Amino acid sequence: MSPLDALWHVLNFLFPALGVAVLASGAAKLFWRRELAGVGWRRLILWTAAAGAAALVGGLVVFGRDGKMASYAALVLASAGALWWLGFGARR
Question: What are phi and psi of 2, to 5 degrees?
Fold first, then answer.
């Protein structure tokens, strides 16, 4: 496998976390405008993507392969938890 192929594999592995982070952050900003007014877009997306990526890596470690539905369920729960923590749990 060439370095370019390896890069594409890693990017495609992490893309669901980034996609969910962007969509979920946008929806959260839309639905909870007042509560998330003080939290910037970049912070929401980065923390949500990091939580989702950690969930995907955890699923890869636990199951030994990518693409399990349980990993994607963990991705959604981790993303929701990160958004909740940034918007309602953490003291700003």
Answer: -80, 165
Q: Where are the domains of the chain?
A: 3-89
The pTM score is 0.88
Comparing C-alpha atoms, which of 48, 40, 43 is closest to residue 21? 48
Separation CA 48–CA 43 (nearest Å): 8
pLDDT tens digit sequence for 19-71: 999 999 999 999 988 888 888 899 999 999 999 999 999 999 999 988 889 99
**Cα dist from 80 to 6, 8, 40, 73, whole Å:** 29, 27, 17, 11
Nearest CA to 46 out of 30, 29, 32, 25 is that of 25
φ, ψ for residue 59, nearest 5 deg: -65, -35
**Lookup: tokens for 49:** 């993507």
